[in-house]
TrEMBL record:
Protein name: Methylthioribose-1-phosphate isomerase
Highest taxon, organism lineage: Eukaryota
Organism: Spizellomyces punctatus (strain DAOM BR117)
Keywords per UniProt: Amino-acid biosynthesis, Cytoplasm, Isomerase, Methionine biosynthesis, Nucleus
Alphabetized Pfam families for the sequence: IF-2B
Listed InterPro entries: IF-2B-related, IF-M1Pi, IF_2B-like_C, Initiation_fac_2B_a/b/d, M1Pi_N, NagB/RpiA_transferase-like
Length: 378
């Protein structure tokens, strides 16, 4: 482990042959970067949620294999193009077993697998040329994600300002979970829009939910908002309807782990109830995600696999430890109680005002309850 204070907020530090991730289980109590030496480490940090957020999961998975492939010892051991191809394929299959809901991991694995298969069949392909093709493509994901996030921020800001009530000079927004620099290669998706609204002088105030049970809101989003000096207030998850009833909230803006072809959206547990309260209060409900979060092969939300996590995340809370740079857990529920802990829920397309991607904003056709994302992406 490398102990460091981050000069800028970043969750992924990569240079050829070296990958470090910010351990998000320790935030906001300690800033500790952990080395990811290969696929085993990559799988473990994703499964244990030291790294989380759909884009970050895909990028760390891809880069963990890039780091492993960069080791000359490996390319020496696997000396032919087909042996590297087979190695990449089996490692990507393994990485796909880390977390099931965010489709970005599956999209990246499928794309990289196909790219390597093509690189292995060109004339004069060598182990080194196939490994390099993989590494270059995995590395490109970092820059592409940051660019996509800035475009999402721009399109999302335009959409919010165009659709806000005329009576509001500046907007107030509510967000859920964490979709910022910590969940991506940088800037963020839903939080990227909020940062963009703030940077352009259009944000009066941001609210973030606590996001039980993992507390991505109170630990991570609150940390990012404070870090960025964005005027912001934390609420518990059960205060959202009261907030919408009492304050002039312009929009609820959330991220996505998987958007089905009809726009049904899997996102952090609690998103669905926010969409219901947004509709009741006539507040915009915006999903912000890169197009890699759109799964055209999944027709509707009922086919999205929903991860269920351990009971311990609900019955215990995490806090700072007396030991520096560590955290500890405290039991908060009656021992012996049963627990259901789905990590995500599905918001029906009918409750979503717009889906903002790096390619633009997708809205429903007049009179339709669903989005046509196939048409949008074509
Ligand atoms: O369980 P997590 O923390 O990985 O869930 C994260 C979310 O639900 C985010 O909203 C989503 O991945 C988008 S991150 C840009």
């Amino acid at each position: 482990m490398v102990m460091q204070t981050a000069p800028t907020l970043e969750a992924i530090r990569y240079k050829k042959g070296s990958l470090e991730i910010l351990d998000q289980l320790l935030l906001p109590f300690a800033t500790v970067f952990e080395q990811v030496k290969g696929v085993e480490d990559g799988h473990r940090v994703i499964k244990t949620m030291k790294v989380r957020g759909a884009p970050a999961i895909a990028i760390v998975a891809a880069l963990s294999l890039a780091v492993e492939l960069h080791s000359t010892a490996l390319v020496g051991k696997l000396s032919t193009a087909p042996s590297i191809q087979e190695f990449v394929h089996s490692k990507l299959e393994y990485l796909k077993t880390s977390r099931p809901t965010a489709v970005n991991l599956f999209e990246a694995a499928g794309r990289l697998d196909g790219l390597v298969a093509r690189a292995a069949t060109v004339a004069n392909a060598t182990a080194q040329s196939v490994a390099s093709a993989y590494i270059d493509a995995a590395e490109a994901m970092l820059q592409k994600d940051i660019e996509d996030n800035h475009n999402i921020g721009r399109f999302g800001t335009e959409y919010v300002l165009k659709h806000k009530p005329q009576t509001q000079a500046e907007v107030q927004v509510l967000t859920h979970c964490n979709t910022g620099s910590l969940a991506t290669a940088g800037w963020g998706t839903a939080l990227g829009i909020i940062r963009d609204l703030h940077a352009s002088g259009n944000l009066a105030h941001a609210y973030c939910t606590e996001t039980r049970p993992y507390n991505q809101g109170s630990r991570l989003t609150a940390y990012e908002l404070v870090y960025e000096n964005i005027p912001a207030t934390l609420i518990c998850d059960d205060m959202a309807s009261a907030l919408l009833a009492r304050k002039p909230i312009t929009a609820i803006i959330v991220g996505a782990d998987r958007v089905a072809a009809n726009g049904d959206t899997a996102n952090k547990i609690g998103t669905y109830q926010l969409a219901i309260t947004a509709q009741y209060h006539n507040v915009l409900f915006i999903v912000a995600a890169p197009s890699t979060s759109i799964d055209l092969l999944t027709a509707s939300g009922k086919d999205i696999p929903i991860e269920e996590r351990a009971a311990v995340e609900v019955v215990q809370i995490r806090g700072p430890s007396v030991q520096e740079n560590a955290s500890t857990t405290v039991q908060i529920a009656a021992p012996g109680i049963g627990v259901w802990n789905p990590a995500f829920d599905v918001t029906p397309a009918s409750l979503i005002s717009a889906i903002v991607t790096e390619k633009g904003v997708c809205v429903k056709k007049p009179g339709s309850d669903v989005f046509d994302l196939k048409d949008f992406l074509s």
